[in-house]
């Protein structure tokens, strides 16, 4: 079955760019009518959708983050990535990647990113 | 403040039936199907209900979902201690062009 795994730096300085990668295993990222999403969760708080990319590269972003977010697809590596620029402490969260087909399933285990100097 | 409104907490005793509500608007729940996710402590969310009332393979039939108008509900019958978790509703919002989540409901099994 398809599995997702997030990777990237756990600590990012304020004003810099947060970069994460999600590696998909057990299936091709470019097959099927799926979207590939990023979702985040600050400690002790709820879930917030960050954005998604389709297998054809079409992106949608959360309007509240749109000016700072870029999601890209790397089909040769079966990965998709998140870049969030100009980060502040408010971007500190566990970041999850997930496959979307009208619902999010499966999810990665999540990776904690802390924004601090 | 979340676009979808859930009660922050719910509780029940083993064997009881508990329901969790999720309230939205015409641009989200009123126009799109609702999904529910279960998040056990320290774990990633897991899909529990999709398309309002469908259970993925492996999810016990103790869990059921429903939707009416601009609200949705998750019902858990025969409550078990392992059901203690946070539950989130989610749907697409056509006005925001964005997925939206409820704030989450923390279920305690007494």
In short:
By secondary structure, chain A is mostly beta strands. Chain A has strands at residues 3-7, 11-12, 18-25, 35-41, 48-54, 59-61, 69-74, 79-84, 93-100, 104-107, 111-115. Helix content of chain B is 0%, strand content 45%.
Characterize the structure shown.
The complex is a heterodimer of chains A (117) and B (110). Chain A has 117 residues and is mostly beta strands. Chain A contains no helices and eleven strands. By secondary structure, chain B is mainly β. In chain B, the strands form two sheets. In chain B, strands 1, 3, 4, 7, 8 and 9 form a six-stranded mixed sheet that branches. Classes of the chains: A mainly beta (117), B mainly beta (110). The A-B interface holds A 37, 39, 46-49, 52, 60-63, 96, 102-110 and B 2, 33, 35, 37, 43-47, 50-51, 56, 88, 90, 96-104.
Helix and strand arrangement:
The complex is a heterodimer of chains A (117) and B (110).
Chain A: E1 3-7, E2 11-12, E3 18-25, E4 35-41, E5 48-54, E6 59-61, E7 69-74, E8 79-84, E9 93-100, E10 104-107, E11 111-115
Parallel strand pairs in A: 2-11
Antiparallel strand pairs in A: 1-3, 3-8, 4-5, 4-9, 5-6, 7-8, 9-10, 9-11
Chain B: E1 9-12, E2 18-23, E3 35-39, E4 46-49, E5 63-68, E6 71-76, E7 85-93, E8 98-101, E9 105-109
Parallel strand pairs in B: 1-9
Antiparallel strand pairs in B: 2-6, 3-4, 3-7, 5-6, 7-8, 7-9
């Amino acid at each position: 079955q398809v599995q997702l795994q997030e990777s990237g730096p756990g600590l990012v300085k304020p004003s810099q760019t947060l970069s994460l990668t999600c590696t998909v295993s057990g299936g091709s990222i470019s097959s099927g009518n799926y979207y590939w999403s990023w979702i985040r969760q600050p400690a002790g708080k709820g879930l917030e959708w960050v954005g998604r990319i389709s297998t054809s590269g079409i992106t949608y972003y959360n309007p509240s983050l749109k000016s700072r977010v870029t999601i890209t697809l790397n089909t040769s590596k079966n990965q998709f990535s998140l870049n969030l620029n100009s980060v502040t402490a408010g971007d500190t969260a566990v970041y999850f990647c997930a496959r979307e087909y009208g619902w999010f399933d499966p999810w990665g285990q999540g990776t904690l990113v802390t924004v601090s100097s | 403040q979340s676009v979808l409104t859930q009660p922050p907490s719910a509780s029940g005793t083993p064997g009881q039936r508990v329901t969790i509500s999720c309230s939205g608007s015409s641009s989200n729940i009123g126009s799109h199907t609702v999904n529910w996710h279960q998040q056990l402590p320290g774990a990633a969310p897991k899909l529990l209900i999709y398309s309002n009332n469908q259970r993925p393979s492996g999810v016990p039939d103790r869990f059921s979902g429903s939707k009416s108008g601009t609200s949705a509900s998750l019902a858990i019958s025969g409550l078990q201690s392992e059901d203690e978790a946070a539950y989130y509703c989610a749907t697409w919002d056509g006005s925001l062009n964005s997925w939206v989540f409820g704030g989450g409901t923390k279920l305690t099994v007494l």
